[in-house]
Design a protein that fits this description.
six-stranded mixed sheet, Carbon-nitrogen hydrolase, 30% strand, globular, alpha+beta
Length: 291
């Protein structure tokens, strides 16, 4: 299959896990009605972004994977014949939790999970309090419509993560994400932060000759202190923006992705072919100094 229709669901969330799940299902159905074959939901879509505080009660939001949410979404995937990329708070064992994305194929089957590798610890993003770094490595999933690579939010800043996932055979890189502006910031800072976020992900397209789909949440949270900036987007294999969402509206959009273009781009801009892999061993060091 040389082309695939990708559904992107950018939505706001409430404090009700069940309401958010039901809303996401409605949005998935909207995307499918528009022709979507693969639908990507935003990071931790069943809840508000709870990592703004260190609160032990928030661990109650976690669930097993597979579990209740994947069971519900699996039935939807099978009914609609779509692939669903679902970012969830995983309870792996007593006291062991991950930020995890589950992949459900178009027949409803559970293909597996990816656990977020890079975990931030910034003001209002206290994820290391909740999440153990992923231990499954980087992953691709062979779905009915494409082989997809899935990374999660903070992973988006790391070219090593996108490169490895691309080298594993991904046709498309997906990034469920949750990122926003502090509402007391000035507009210039806001613009600089968003542009950096978009630029680094577009660069993954260029460096790897792959489409990138990044799906972010929208709306005010944290008692109005945080505006999640939306701005979800999709690129082609050369980093060209195919679709760009607004910063303040819920959107369910379907984008045509041409998978065959990757071959054309990689032949004409042969960055993968020309890599000097024998020179890259130093990348495994924390810092290259005299020690």
């Amino acid at each position: 299959m040389s082309k695939v229709k990708v559904g992107m669901v950018q939505m706001s969330c409430t404090a009700s896990k069940q309401e958010n799940l039901e809303k996401a299902i409605v949005k998935v159905k909207e995307a499918a009605a528009k022709g979507a074959q693969i639908v990507c939901l935003q990071e931790l879509f069943t809840s508000l972004y709870f990592c703004d505080v260190e609160d032990y009660d928030n661990f109650d939001l976690a669930e097993s994977i597979p579990g209740p949410s994947t069971d519900a979404l699996s039935a939807v995937a099978k009914e609609l014949g779509v692939v669903i990329i679902a970012s969830l708070f995983e309870k792996r064992a007593q006291g062991l939790y991950h930020n995890t994305t589950a992949i459900l194929d178009a027949d409803g089957s559970y293909l597996g999970k990816y656990r977020k590798m890079h975990i931030p610890d910034d003001p209002a993003y206290y994820e290391k309090f909740y999440f153990t770094p992923g231990d499954l490595g980087y992953k691709v999933f062979k779905t009915k419509f494409a082989t997809i690579g899935v990374l999660i939010c903070w992973d988006q800043w790391y070219p090593e993560a996108s490169r490895i996932t691309a080298l594993m055979g991904a046709d498309i890189l997906f990034y469920p994400t949750a990122i926003g502006w502090a509402t007391d910031q000035d507009e210039e800072t806001n613009a600089d932060q968003y542009n950096a976020w978009q630029t680094i992900q577009r660069s993954h397209s260029v460096a790897n000759g792959l489409p990138v789909v990044s799906v972010n949440r929208v709306g005010f949270e944290q008692n109005g202190a945080m505006k999640f900036w939306g701005g979800s987007f999709a690129t082609n294999a050369q980093g060209k923006i195919l679709y760009l969402a607004s910063h303040d509206q819920e959107e369910t959009e379907v984008v045509d992705i041409d998978l065959a273009q990757s071959d054309y781009i990689r032949k004409h801009w042969p960055f993968l072919r020309d890599r000097r892999i024998e020179t890259y061993q130093p990348i495994t060091k924390r810092f290259i100094d005299e020690e």
